[in-house]
Amino acid sequence: MICIIPVGEIEQSNLFDLKPKLKEVFGLEVEIKEGLDKPDYAYNPERKQYFSTSILKEIAKTSYKDCERVLGVVDLDLFVPSLNFIFGEADIWGKSCIISVSRLHQSFYGLPEDQELFQQRVLKEAVHELGHTFGLSHCPDPKCVMHFSNSLKDTDIKSHNFCKNCKNLLKEQKKFKE
Ligand SMILES: [Zn+2]
Ligand SMILES: [Zn+2]
Fold first, then answer.
1. What is the DSSP letter of 66?
2. Average pLDDT, stretch 116-129?
3. Dist. CA 89–CA 87, nearest whole Å
4. Has 129 been annotated as catalytic?
5. Distance 169 CA to ligand 2 centre (A)
6. pLDDT value of residue 176
7. Neighbouring C-alpha atoms within 13 Å toward the C-beta of 168
8. How far, in Å, from the CA of 46 to the mean position of ligand 2?
9. What are the structural domain ranges in the chain?
10. Fold exhibited by the domain 2-177
């Protein structure tokens, strides 16, 4: 089962759409678990952003036994020291990953909000990070969900599905982990 853990304040309606879609993509049950508090410990006042890796560690500690994978979702701007910002981060070969929906809102860029586009972006980022937890790395196919998103343009070009290659890899990895 894939468990979704909201971290800090996040609109629950942003998560409900993820449930059926993630189930469809990974063939696993999906459940929204109790959330974690706002991650003040991860705040960097100079950058005015939150350090992704320290939140990821907290997510990994939520050891729900029934969760094969844990996806943390935050509505805060995330960073790692080497990058200006990140959409998400994953424990490759681990159980946990995190995505930030903050930069997926059109309103982040001063544009009118587009709920459908937003939901699509959330799904793509979630599938991408979960894909990493199954050992998948970045894919050169710009349509594949495992393609690296440098910007939202890349996110909007790719689909929420794995290309044939990645799909086969995922199948193998899932078998391997069982
Ligand atoms: Zn990635
Ligand atoms: Zn691919």
1. T
2. 96
3. 7
4. yes
5. 9
6. 60
7. 3
8. 37
9. 2-177
10. Collagenase (Catalytic Domain) (3.40.390)
